[in-house]
Amino acid sequence: MLYNEPMNYRRCGRSGVLLPEISLGLWHNFGGVDKREQNVAIIGRAMELGICHFDLADNYGPPPGSAEERFGDLLKHEFAGHRDEMFIATKAGHLMWPGPYGDWGSRKHLISGLDQSLRRMKLDYVDVFYHHRPDPDTPIEETVEALVQIVRSGKALYIGLSKYPPAAFNRACTLLAEAHVPCLLHQFRYNLLDRSCEAGMLPAARSQSTGSIVFSPLAQGMLTGKYLNSPTLPADSRAERSDSIFLDAAKVAADADKVARLQNIANEAGIPLTQLALRWLLQRQGVTSVLIGARTVAQLEDCAAAAGQPALSDELMELLNAE
Ligand code: NDP
To answer: Comparing C-alpha atoms, which of 1, 119, 111, 3 is closest to residue 71?
Structure first.
């Protein structure tokens, strides 16, 4: 059954859109290499829990494109009739096909890219379409015009920007607002190991009154503590997988001391580290939704339990902030 457990929803900037405190991303675990029945179970459980926002991109997989294909397949079969209960995002702007038009932020790339995504997902429109990363060479005016054209054509209801540094973000927001297509959401990395957005992206999103949805809240799994005290990488963990480009044994080792300190704080507080990491984010001013990844239903449920919890004490927040 859908939406049969309580979930807190937060308003996205000054828009009419509410997003769940916990949203689900399909960057990993939903590719052509992953098990279809596991994906059915995760999406079904997410909908029961009220996690109705699904975040995709053209290049998610592996192979690239296969997460959208898988999601489209599930929408057509197991979740047919439930499109309007979901808020679906996709993105373009990273390398997708060979030649000069398969990447970045030209009108050519963005419009072709979204058309391909819609075909893969068998959808007429997405709820939010993001430019996945800023393009240093294409004039921002062209990128924004393409995004506006996409909304006017009905292929996306809202526009988002991802990983835009503050100056480019502010300029794009101004141009979008002038075209009466306000930016709905800014998407960027934020977790207890990487707080770089606090110096720019987070305050910029607040000052533009857009929503902020933050990715890799568990630092790809490191903030669950699963890599601590184990001489080898746990089987099936992301760091152990050969298709994981951004998390490996070296990255795990580099952050191990800080994760161990955070684990001690979690133990002292009597709160599992996963919960602490997610609740800390949900308590940071300006965060609309926390965008998790889940390989199993148990992981999804564990993360979902962080929503709707009482505020962490000032003392605990200070300890975490001081790390
Ligand atoms: P997380 O930091 O939540 O990492 C998810 C991984 O952590 C899982 O796949 C799993 O890895 C592990 N995990 C999650 N929950 C638990 C748990 N309860 N117990 C143990 N392990 C757990 O987020 P992601 O890095 O996956 O990013 C989330 C989403 O953000 C992406 O799917 C994507 O939609 C978006 N994103 C956007 C980017 C952008 O450029 N705009 C860039 C990156 C992400 P394991 O396999 O080890 O079990």
So the answer is: 119
In the predicted structure, residue 197 carries a pLDDT above the cut 70: yes
The parent domain of residue 109 ranges over 9-221+271-313
- Quote the tokens at residue 66: 């296969």
Q: 1 falls in which pLDDT band (50, 70, 90)? A: low
Asked if residue 234 belongs to a domain, the reply is no
Q: How far is the CA of 316 from the centre of ligand 1 (A)?
A: 24
Q: What is the mean pLDDT of the chain?
A: 96
- Structurally, how many domains does the chain consist of? 1
d(CA 218, ligand 1 centre) in Å: 7
3-class DSSP state for residue 35? coil
User: Is the CB of 227 inside a 6 Å radius of any atom of ligand 1?
Assistant: no
Is residue 250 in a domain?
A: no
Between CA 320 and CA 317 the distance in angstroms is 5
Using a 6 Å cutoff on CB, does residue 294 contact ligand 1?
yes
- For residue 208 and ligand 1, the question of a CB distance below 6 A is answered with no
Domain CATH number, residue 69: 3.20.20.100
